[in-house]
Design goal:
globular, two-stranded antiparallel sheet, Peptide Methionine Sulfoxide Reductase, Chain A, 6-stranded mixed beta sheet, alpha+beta
Length: 236
């Protein structure tokens, strides 16, 4: 027994190190819910052409990760976290978090239409930014404020979004039906300052490491033509 005890004391530092390495690797490994796939490009889309900057408003769960993904997309000039779907009176984090306001945590993406199209943004949205088959939830977060939603600002965006969802459902791109809503954008309300660029400012936060960094890695790995290493920031 004495020899066994000595072995255990000697081996414990090594076992502890192996356990620590395992925990770190588990944190950085993509979660099952973050398994991504590259869906086909939309058949209906705007042609790329020089012109004034355009905006897209998308909701795909917690806005920290969705903002983080699109801040790494070529042609994107700015991504703001915020709220869409409800009124100005309830557009603040604690109230939206009750799930009773009609708001969804959203991002407003400003992009150069000569470099990236609206349809390509939707391709990234469906491929790596979130799971469009989860109803009123994403990963560990549940409630209507985490729903999958495309808020269109004009008839063209509405047609592209609706046609794309029909295209992906018809081709069975996902094992389950897409539940993403397509709603008219009434107004976008920017979230509180501490939510902006949250992933960039908090890359070691456990929530970010476990839920959101794998999305950016999937963008880089699966859609390298859209990826840029240097993210744009709200503060820029």
């Amino acid at each position: 027994m004495l020899e066994v005890s000595k072995w255990r004391r000697a081996a414990w530092p090594v076992l502890a190190l192996l356990l620590l390495i395992g925990l770190v690797l588990a944190q950085h490994a993509p979660r099952a819910s973050e398994r991504s796939l590259v869906v086909p490009a939309p058949e209906l889309d705007n042609p790329k052409a020089a012109g004034p900057a355009q905006t897209a408003v998308l909701s795909g769960g917690c806005f920290w990760g969705v903002q983080g993904v699109f801040e790494h997309v070529r042609g994107v000039r700015k991504v703001v976290s915020g709220y869409s779907g409800g009124s100005s009176a309830t557009a603040e984090y604690e109230t939206v978090s009750t799930g009773t306001t009609g708001h969804a945590e959203s991002v407003q993406i400003t992009f150069d239409p000569a470099e990236v199209s609206y349809g390509e943004l939707l391709q990234i949205f469906f491929s790596v930014a979130h799971d469009p088959t989860e109803l009123n939830r994403q990963g560990p977060d549940s409630g209507t404020q985490y729903r999958s939603d495309i808020f269109y600002s004009d008839e063209t965006q509405q047609k592209i979004a609706t046609a794309y969802i029909n295209q992906l459902n018809s081709s069975h791109a996902f094992p389950r039906a897409i539940v993403t809503r397509v709603d008219a954008l009434k107004r976008f309300y920017a979230a509180e300052g501490y939510h902006q660029d949250y992933l960039i400012h908090n890359p070691r936060a456990p929530y970010i490491v476990y839920n959101d960094l794998p999305k950016i890695e999937n963008l880089k790995r699966l859609l390298p033509g859209f990826y840029q290493a240097q993210p744009v920031m709200v503060a820029n």
